[in-house]
Amino acid sequence: MSRKNLIAGNWKMNNTVAEAVVLAQEISNRIERDWLELVDVAVCPPYVDLKPVKSVFEFDRVDIAVGAQNVYWEPKGAFTGEISIAMIDNIGCTYCIVGHSERRNLFGETNEDVNLKARALVEADITPIICVGESLSVRDAGTYLDFVTAQVRAAYAGMDEADAAKTVIAYEPVWAIGTGRTATPEQAEEVCAAIRATASELFGAEVAEGLRVLYGGSMNEGNAALLLGEADIDGGLIGGAALKADSFIQIVKEAC
Ligand code: PEP
Description:
Layout: E1 5-10, H1 17-30, E2 39-44, H2 47-59, E3 65-68, H3 85-90, E4 95-98, H4 101-107, H5 111-123, E5 127-132, H6 136-141, H7 144-156, H8 161-164, E6 168-171, H9 185-203, H10 205-210, E7 212-216, H11 224-228, E8 235-238, H12 245-254
Parallel strand pairs: 1-2, 1-8, 2-3, 3-4, 4-5, 5-6, 6-7, 7-8
Helix pairs in contact: 1-2, 5-7, 7-9
The chain binds phosphoenolpyruvate.
Protein name: Triosephosphate isomerase
Keywords: Cytoplasm, Gluconeogenesis, Glycolysis, Isomerase
Family: Belongs to the triosephosphate isomerase family.
């Protein structure tokens, strides 16, 4: 089965509304419409920028999706500071990142939290981009395949084939995020293939073949082509390079 690449920009905690609109306009103006036949593109700005960025893409009638960077699984209530799935759905988000290593490491998000968020998103027909990845100490210990596949199993707990088919996994080695130290294509492929094999064990070959597995970690316009050339890498989750229109647009082009 041929999978369409997905390039998703994670803007993290960057860009005021005014800055976000300028960046969204530049992306919208410069991404050629026929590229979007070959690659799916999404940007994930901070919550407050979601609606303005979505409006830019709607105004330009460009098929670039908008996603949130996090969400809470409860439908509503006394959860100060949290944002619900209905809220991001209402402003047109079709993706949501969950379990980013910054959320796991800085904000204490657990595998159980990731699972609850991913399941609730799937139920609402919003695609979770489920982030997994090992730290440098786990990589150096040589146990990274066990570590990452355990994260994948935990994220999928309680899901069936149909649920899993609505997810995206992003392999993001923590040692490569924001460090400029990218995994080699071979390193990234080894883990992405193991993720797909795990999905096959859990949900069967058909779901696994259709599952998009992204690589994230210092992907840029210089290294994207080689990473995206690997058999089990179906796109990228892009941090720093997604904040620069030139870089992001070039990565999208490489993914066509
Ligand atoms: C990320 O945070 O998801 C990411 C991949 O960041 P960067 O590209 O900056 O390493």
